[in-house]
Design goal:
- The structure is a homotetramer.
- In chain A, a hairpin with a 6-residue loop joins strand 2 and strand 3 (about 65-70).
- Chain A is built from nine helices and 13 strands.
- With about 300 residues, the first copy, chain A, is an alpha/beta fold.
- Chains in contact: A-B, A-C, A-D, B-C, B-D, C-D.
- Chains A, B, C, D: Its EC number is 3.5.1.10.
- Chains A, B, C, D: Belongs to the PurU family.
- Chains A, B, C, D: It is an enzyme of class 3 (hydrolase).
């Protein structure tokens, strides 16, 4: 591709059709007429529906999920007004949950990390070159190792040590940085501490975690050593929303990479790191593009 | 999975929510209000929209594609009536092309094949066990080799030899079997003869072809030998709609499989056969589920 | 590829350089000079080493694995003689286990199956067209459903019902068919009964099993239902040697296929069936080509 | 994995069994006794063969390729001596080409790049954390854009502009930096200028190039735009040795990633960038581990 084409694409990117564009997410019990109701609401306000995805778990008595991307001049300033009107005119009638999102506003994101840098650096690098629709406002770590890497990107680095004794205090300190509605998303980019239910409740935004995965799974310590002992041929990773049970939340994305008997445990660790960073950045991208809806303990990814 | 669960699934399959269900495909220049117009049309007739997918090439002046699956008691008997009404009330207003399809009616399919049986047998086998929503009414081959395999499935086998001299005559004989609106789809399951533009025009239904693919491509004869000489690491296949330029039509699905330097040309051929049958059956499934819309020389696959 | 080329390849296949060819598998504690010792043994007898793969778990005190394919006129008649000489001249000195295999002799294989036909039919079909270096001598099932499919391929079908009460008697009946050194390999092509340790000991040959796999794993009943509830994005399969703990033996091959939230449980089951048959046939091929060596609870696949 | 395990692995890495270890690559026309000859040569000198891979294109009159990794105290200081002896005692007898490589010595690498940073940064990052067995001694670019990114890693950045008029002069300036046996490998990490045959001859070491790949291929300008117009479902990349015909050299590694009709051209470019950097780092790793042997216009990758 020529530099000219690239510049053109970068230009297209900077204003990539997201100004004057918003996204509406709707979920409720399936009811006749909901799609018509939603689209009428938007069209009556002069919106042009750019993209619409719908998923219904079954025709009779299932759950209903809708993602609509629409173009409407000046929509950024009208989201509150639209929300109030939608609540009255549509949501009450269909008993639906809904969210309006301004496509022009990058998500405000904070990252928690321990000592592995592969996921963190990939997110910093992609964000810095405009590949991910988000702004990284803070990195919180229980170690100091990655301070220089992070500050180089102009992102504040908060070192908050965690020990069994200080866990409660540490989580308060973390919440001082991450809580209070400052962020739309917290990413656990290989953060090796268990977060308490209380923390997850109080942080006040979704939390995405990345976790190695194998077929079969190897719970507990030394998973790569045990995968090596079992002779697995695939090393995988799973990105999911963090829940009380840290590694059991709704899955957003998964992928695997092949390994052979020649791979050392160290090779497995490196292969795992590559698939982890790749899976995490896809899950984060989809979340920041408002493509992921929760459905019980699973997800709908539009 | 227990046999009980399997039986349950098979039962669910036989009547898998497709009775009283229809699919509507719409494509046109993007215009405000089209989604609302379509959904209002359906809802006013008591339809419940089960699934809706939409794609718009760009917010300003692009093309618009919509697939709606809806549930409406007795819809099978009302498709002509719905089409007439839709033409007047919606299609004319938005200048859109559209098709209604009865989800309960399997597609009527014919298969053309030469001597390779891998794609043909996979389609026959999957259809015989209810895995593909289609009925295979005829197999046409320029060879007799596969007659027994085909007739064993209760499918008529038409051997129509083709030579350069007899090509025109042969195509007429083929059209006697395949033409006249008898079929909704013709599948080229490794049919090694070039079909004339005239044949493609007169057959009167879409034609899906499967073709080996490599990175890079090797046009012309002996592609596997040349892939071996170049040391390719991936062997692929492409399923596409056949056009005048046989291997250049809109792509429906593609996939690849890995090979190493140890693979002989024969291994490459076998690997290619496996990926061909896998890619073809996916493309055929999606077409028979009315998931594929044409967009110039590309496809929208919902 | 032209029919000519195919015929050529088929011809090459029938006598595909395997006549006068044998394979030697060696495993032992790593010791200096073992490769030189083995290759000298073969070269002194006029063998030409066609292929040689070696794996050593670590340079110091590890395990050593070697697979040598060699060409030697009349080797088929000399395997016993070679074994006796190798035992004295090489194996005793290095304390190694070893096996000589005649590459021209297809493996004698029996298949156990319950009611799912996808893996069984794929193995029958590939074997019938010379794609797998094996002969299927018997199919044993605890159900009668698949009798016609099997006998059509000229393979005897043994229906041996299994109930909790009759399990011991049934296994004896199964061993009457499968035991006594009649077979080189038994394949569990979705055989849904647990086999006793006693059966595995007495059957007297390796047993390969195919098993669905997910990230994470879902042990116990209804795995596809639970995978659906968790929203997994990958459906996989694992082929492994059966051990006392049926689903925990050394892994030979694994693979996965992608699914989305739109996939019904039935779609997951079908996707799983496709990856199961694909993984099983690769594992069976590699075993029948003497490419798989056991290393504790893992495998070395050359 | 615990930090302890990681530290252990990192320790294992720093001295990862590569000290006192060398690699021998041999290629020649296949001849009986070559494996025995090579292994006897090594064993007689007290070497312990750690790993041995062999590939023979066919048993009769084919080409033969061998990679042997062996452990021999003090081997780093004896490579010249071993080479001279091997030439006389083995290579002459079998007419073979051969190379000895010290596994403890990282490859000396230079990178050429234009303006795309994704491949370059991934190589700099992996090298800086000891993931690739190489040292990057210089980055040469026809633009200045990436100077800061490169110098931050302590690597000299040479900006050498290239215009049609100055091409010959520019190549001389590039050869002043890259030639003279300073480097074992030159990597074209998205270097967008055609290199002359003369340059490739005079640079005096292998050159690895990364190139986007599609099924089918789209030669010439705007490949992503044309892939979009054709509706390709797979975006790929090929890493190969550069030859006079820049994009036609022996292939080392390839991979693909899936895209849908929803992907914009910009999405295709980003997906292509991700697969390019992943494929290039694998190809570079294998080359630096002396795993890649040339075979005509293809490669043997052990």
């Amino acid at each position: 591709m020529t530099g000219a084409v690239l510049s053109a694409l970068r230009a297209q990117e900077s204003s990539s059709g997201v100004t004057d564009t918003a996204r509406l997410l709707v979920s409720c019990a399936d009811r006749p007429g909901i799609v018509a109701g939603v689209s009428r609401f938007l069209v009556e306000r002069g919106a042009n529906i750019v993209q619409s995805d719908q998923y219904s778990t079954n025709p009779e008595s299932g759950s209903f999920f809708l993602r609509v991307v629409f173009h409407l001049p000046g929509v950024s300033a009208r989201l509150d007004e639209l929300s109030e009107q939608f609540a009255v005119e549509v949501a009450q009638r269909f008993g639906s949950d809904f969210e309006f999102h301004d496509a022009a506003r990058p998500k405000r994101v904070a990252i928690m990390v321990s000592r592995y840098d592969h996921c963190l650096l990939d997110l910093l690098w992609r964000t810095s070159r405009g590949e991910l629709p988000m702004e990284i406002g803070a990195v919180v770590s229980n170690w100091g190792d990655l301070r220089d890497e992070v500050t180089r990107f102009g992102v504040p680095y908060h070192e908050i040590p965690v020990t069994r004794a200080t866990k409660a205090t540490s989580e308060s300190a973390q919440l001082d940085v991450l809580g209070g509605g400052r962020y739309d998303l917290v990413i656990l980019a290989r953060y090796m501490q268990i977060l308490s239910d209380d923390f997850l409740r109080r942080v006040g935004c979704p939390v995405i975690n990345i976790h190695h995965s194998f077929l079969p799974a190897f719970a507990g310590a030394g998973p790569y050593e045990r995968a090596k002992e079992r002779g697995v041929k695939l090393i995988g990773a799973t990105a999911h929303y963090a829940t009380a049970d840290l590694d059991e939340g709704p899955i957003i994305e998964q992928d695997v990479t092949r390994v052979s008997h020649r791979a050392t445990t160290r090779d497995l660790v490196r292969a795992g790191a590559d698939v982890e960073r790749s899976v995490l950045q896809r899950a984060v991208r989809w979340h920041c593009e408002d493509r992921v809806l929760l459905h019980g303990n699973t997800t709908v990814v539009f």
